[in-house]
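Regression test case RT-17, inverse folding.

Input:
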């Protein structure tokens, strides 16, 4: 019997548990992976994270494994193809924003030599370790996510409101929002 205590949000869902136990909150410094989280968090707006996780492999397939240099060149034909694909979220604004964001992502890489160097500046290059006892204590945004959102929007990124940015920070391990009783809390703190 699995007696591990974990955050309650996976709610017994297999994909959610796997993501929680293996990825969520783990510091990410790989640009392609950071772009993947940026895309998935934008598509998640207004939907459940479970919905995104259940479609994640389809997203990877149709979005060329989240390679921004390929996505930045998508044309109208590709957009129409994506809009017909039932394996992803078929939201035209989110699809078009993914292309726009890929273009700006490449600009940021050029300016900072990596997106990693740019994005981690919002937490001073370190994971912010929180000490939450209850899910109700976990914020939906912070001053850091506000600053990130403002700067990304200034650079032309879309679907990067402060709540989306905070979800990105959680996914990319820029903050550790595992509850203190969760078995992953200490594990993530030592990564």
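Golden output:
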């Amino acid at each position: 019997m699995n007696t591990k205590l974990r955050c309650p949000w996976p709610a017994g869902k297999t994909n959610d548990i796997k993501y929680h136990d293996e990825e969520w909150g783990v510091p990410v410094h790989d640009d392609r992976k950071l772009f993947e989280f940026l895309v998935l968090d934008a598509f998640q707006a207004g939907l459940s994270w479970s919905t995104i996780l259940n479609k994640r492999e389809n997203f990877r397939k149709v979005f060329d494994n989240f390679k921004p240099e390929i996505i930045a060149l998508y044309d109208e034909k590709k957009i129409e193809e994506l809009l017909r694909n039932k394996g992803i979220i078929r939201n035209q604004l989110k699809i078009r924003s993914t292309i726009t964001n890929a273009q700006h992502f490449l600009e940021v890489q050029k300016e900072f030599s990596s997106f990693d160097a740019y994005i981690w500046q919002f937490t001073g290059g370190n994971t912010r370790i929180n000490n939450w006892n209850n899910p109700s204590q976990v914020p939906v945004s912070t001053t850091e996510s506000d600053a990130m959102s403002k700067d990304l929007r200034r650079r032309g990124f879309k679907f990067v409101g402060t709540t989306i940015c905070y979800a990105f920070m959680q996914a990319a391990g820029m903050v550790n929002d595992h509850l203190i009783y969760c078995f992953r809390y200490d594990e993530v703190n030592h990564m």
